[in-house]
Amino acid sequence: MTDSAPDLPIVLLLSETIERYPEEPVNYLLRGEAWLTAGDPRRAASDFEAARDLVRQRLAQSAWGYVEQAYLDRAQAGLTACEGELLPTDSS
Q: Does 89 map to a domain?
């Protein structure tokens, strides 16, 4: 777990889970959603990208991929939400 993680129980739990199972995209996806809810779109985007990359690897090896596609769709939706949060505001 990183020292910079805030004292958010869900983020702390998911960070520990990611340390144990770094190849599981759902953990990054859920932590990204937690970061987004906590108002940290930069960290959220990083986790959504990690989830998306892991899912794409799995889809390439999967004959079915229904769950993976759902994860990919959710990660992409999270990234879209982050883009709205990260856009500079026009204060003029």
A: no
